[in-house]
Amino acid sequence: xxxxxxxxxxxxxxxxxxxxxxxxxxxxxxxxxxxxxxxxxxxxxxxxxxxxxxxxxxxxxxxxxxxxxxxxxxxxxxxxxxxxxxxxxxxxxxxxxxxxxxxxxxxxxxxxxxxxxxxxxxxxxxxxxxxxxxxxxxxxxxxxxxxxxxxxxxxxxxxxxxxxxxxxxxxxxxxxxxxxxxxxxxxxxxxxxxxxxxxxxxxxxxxxxxxxxxxxxxxxxxxxxxxxxxxxxxxxxxxxxxxxxxxxxxxx
Length: 252
Description:
Layout: H1 2-27, H2 35-91, H3 96-114, H4 132-140, H5 147-174, H6 180-200, H7 205-228, H8 241-249
Helix pairs in contact: 1-6, 1-7, 2-3, 2-5, 2-6, 2-7, 2-8, 3-4, 4-5, 6-7
């Protein structure tokens, strides 16, 4: 809910700036509200508005890429887990314990992600049963009896390596958050822009409602950016359906 609270604070700042602008309008002499003054203020705020729009577009694109990338990595992990289970099954009955550990680890992983409240993807401790580390150690201990089993062992180790790689890539991507100074500067710019709107807007319900809708839209965009940037927490999350599907296929 941090993103929702942040978006609400952004709304208060932006709409509050508009109200402050309306109040200042009452205090200024009429000469400060002439058309030439409006033109200068409009050009200045237009420049700030352009910069703000460019920054918000850039951050939105980056956050969307992060969200899509995390979902893609999670789906690829689910595929690798299912393939690993089949390779181990083809190796022989001696891998039954490894496959059970793999299933147990995936169950715990799904539970952790589903109940996660932090912005980063949760992981089981390396010493926990069923982690990729444990599975890799046990796969390495397998003793192939023929060429086919040697090939299957090599495939299994490669798949576990891919799962481990995805684990660290997910961890690295989710640690990249939007810097607080960046967000503060953008909110300050938006507040200035809305203050200029309020400064030259008429004092009636229609103008106030229009500013209210615009402020809500701006806060909504900040909320979406923050939600997309934290794919494993909040209201918008990366789906764990691929992992659940993989879990249902393990052991079959």
